[in-house]
Write a structure and sequence with these properties.
199 residues; mainly alpha; Arc Repressor Mutant, subunit A; Tetracycline Repressor, domain 2; 2 domains; 70% helix; 0% strand
Length: 199
């Protein structure tokens, strides 16, 4: 009995683990159909008190997931930008990142691409206004200035490029494409880059 209590208390002391489980449930069951009881059960907790120790409610959990995912994405994009000066190489690195996440952390990509975040996190910035995606627009603007990318509106170039990337990833995440994401990376990159590259 004491060992069981110790395990429960230990699990209750890991908010990151609770968030990981919440993310999995939000992306498989849906945000509104996932309850705190569901999260507690999947976390190995006897009741929701272990969750309340860290999170006041489900909305705060979703907001924390949003912050964590976009902070990580922002850091990853900074790393990619530091490795190369060319916009084409930076966009290729971001594409690689998204495809790798689709294979290795599908819940993260489902959170970004499948869930309607505005529906349950209306107070958060739209995805395109987050620091990570503002940096992507800057990469595209730099590519236009350098002559790598056609002279079109940067937002439109972003829509063309990531429209192809995102539609492929959505097809993977929903099971419409049945191989690993990596199997589609080259073809998708070429199609997306050719949509915006200066010929």
């Amino acid at each position: 009995m004491d060992q069981e209590i110790e395990i429960i208390q230990h699990k209750a002391e890991t908010p990151d683990e609770i968030l990981r489980i919440a993310l999995k449930l939000f992306t498989t069951k849906g945000y509104y159909t996932t309850s705190l009881v569901d999260i507690a059960e999947a976390s190995g907790l006897k009741n929701t008190s272990g969750i309340y120790h860290h999170f006041k409610n489900k909305h705060i959990m979703a907001a924390q997931l949003y912050a964590n995912i976009f902070d990580s994405l922002n850091i990853s994009i900074d790393d990619i930008r530091r490795k190369s000066q060319k916009s084409s190489e930076q966009l290729h690195g971001i594409t690689d990142l998204f495809f790798r996440l689709t294979d290795d952390a599908p819940e993260v990509m489902q959170f970004l691409l499948i869930l309607n975040l505005k529906e349950f996190l209306p107070e958060e910035k739209p995805v395109m206004e987050t620091a990570a995606f503002i940096k992507i627009i800057k990469i595209i603007q730099a590519g236009i200035t350098a002559g790598e990318i056609r002279e079109i509106d940067p937002q439109l170039a972003n829509a063309y490029f990531f429209g192809i990337i995102n539609n492929t990833l959505r097809a993977l995440l929903t099971g419409a494409l049945n191989k690993k994401a990596d199997a589609y990376l080259s073809q998708t990159w070429l199609a997306a880059w050719n949509a915006i590259a200066k010929k």
